[in-house]
Design brief:
32% strand; 13 strands; globular; 219 residues; five-stranded antiparallel beta sheet; mainly beta; eight-stranded antiparallel beta sheet; single chain
């Protein structure tokens, strides 16, 4: 009974906003019970591989999930979410995704989510894939909830994992453009340069869960 009560209390605190967050302009991107506000890339519906249970959004069957994007587009914003990776799984969070490519990663830069502690030479959780590596490694490991905060603004962008800042960058800067030119994205038109776009969650690479997904628009 105590365990059930504790779980119920924890569930009640998920996917909600405090009064202070609401006043500051934060909005939930995941309501905790449905996939409302999301759709598969270039589609109107969501694959059956995405499930919602106990306040958690999960790509439980990557073969039938696919990548999903937010219904709304965003320019400058703060994004907060919790993510939980199954052992050895792979996913990512993307921003400024457009419909001009064949996949959302053809335009939207990806913040890597990856449980691969055995190979430290690959892209790690929190890195901006192929562009900016993290100087720290704050990822807790598989089957644990990790916190991701992303700031995308005109002055600077940054990624924070479990309270540790990994890097900063400026969209459109010479450093930013040079890194794209040296990456596998160099021939993809508009990659990383769209002024606005959707938020993307990668669902076709592995089992991953999300909760407390919220965003605050910066004007």
């Amino acid at each position: 009974m105590i365990t059930f009560l504790a779980a119920a209390i924890a569930f009640q605190g998920l996917n909600t906003l405090t009064q202070a967050e609401t006043r500051a302009g934060w909005k939930l991107l995941f309501d905790g019970t449905t996939t409302k506000g999301w759709h598969n890339f270039k589609m109107k519906s969501i694959g059956a591989g995405w499930t919602v249970k106990d306040g958690v959004l999960t790509s439980s069957d990557p073969h039938n999930a696919g990548d999903i994007v937010s219904d709304e587009k965003y320019k400058w914003f703060e994004l907060d979410l919790d993510f939980n990776m199954a052992k050895g799984q792979n996913s990512g969070v993307m921003f400024h995704c457009g419909d001009t490519g064949d996949a959302m990663w053809h335009t939207g830069p990806e913040i890597q989510l990856f449980d691969n502690p055995s190979n430290r030479n690959v892209q790690q959780s929190g890195w901006l894939y192929e562009l900016y590596p993290g100087k720290e490694d704050a990822y807790k490991g598989p089957e644990q909830w990790n916190h991701l905060r992303v700031l995308i603004s005109k002055e600077k962008c940054e990624t924070i994992v479990n309270g540790v800042k990994y890097y900063e960058f400026v969209i459109g800067s010479e450093d930013y453009k040079e890194r794209i030119a040296k990456s596998k994205f160099k021939d993809m038109k508009n990659f990383g340069m769209l002024p606005t776009g959707t938020i993307g969650l990668q669902g076709d690479h592995g089992v991953v869960s999300f909760r407390n997904v919220k965003i605050r628009v910066i004007k």
